Amino acid sequence: METMKILYVSSCGIPTPAPAYSGLEQVCWNTAVGMKKLGHEVSIVASADSDKKAYDKAGISLIPTVFSSLTPIPESEMWSLAIGRIRDFNKYDLIHDMSHSGVAILGEMEAQKNATPFPPRIWTIHDDLPFSTHPPVPYPCIISPSLANSQGISERVPDMVTRVCWHGIDTELHKYSEDKGDRLLYVGRIDPIKSADMAINIADVTGHGLDIVGPIHIRNKYSEKILSLCDGKNIVYHGEVPHEKKVEFMQKAKALVTFPRFQEPFGLLSPEAQATGTPVISDCMGGLPETIKQGVTGFSCVTPGDAVQAIERIDSIRPKECRAWVEKHFTVEEMCGRYRKIYREVLERGVRW
User: What span, in angstroms and rounded, lies between the C-alpha atoms of 149 and 74?
Assistant: First the structure.
């Protein structure tokens, strides 16, 4: 099979590609663009306020759902709207679902009710499985973005089998720089599970300044606490910034510090920072350690105390090693090469797992 017709399903509440902070949406866009460059026909289900000019430029079809301004609608209802916008599911060779909700499962349930055919499904998990009970249709072929995520799913659902495909980034959008400053960097939404407070504590103990970049989606005691710790000099909150500005922060940072209080399935910010030549200091849970070459491109740490010691050693990290690590393992080209192999196994050999 030379040319495949692929339908990607992204978030319906945030534009794809997102104008600023995003993870799932950027991975979906990177994959779709990469597969289009490989000569395949590509469509994406995404929010209606996604940048249509970007789709036209990339030669990708946009199937709009609802505007992201309507995100207060429960996600299950939004996906009902999404399914209603997709016509003739069976004209696609394959559906690659990258949503949190498993819209391909919902779509097959709808097709089952109407006794209509449905193409093979692949579902990249960006979090935990959203179903507390097995859906009334077979699970799609599930892809985990890390070995840790795959093992975690197998532990929770013993009969669940997943393949692993690391995410990839567009290295052209993350330019390399050896010109590093002395300030640490935190990038991510201001949320207890993302732990901006840990980055602040580490900066305070080590005597380094800290730049905080990311949105506040919900004003609460935690976000107010973080803002109260920002003095505008040593600890500076910059809010959500465009992609280009985020890359500038990464290029100049001494290190990216990320200590989420949950098992991050992958951690896209890690290869993004390393692509700019900036090392990463992270916890050792979830998929993050897989994105770091220990002691060469950064440090995975068990405790905040370990992170403090890592910062004392951070000048031993060579920026060129960080870039080379990403170019070898975490590019769009590497990711799409792995996905193309998986797609062909599913379509040409009927492989299921």
Answer: 26
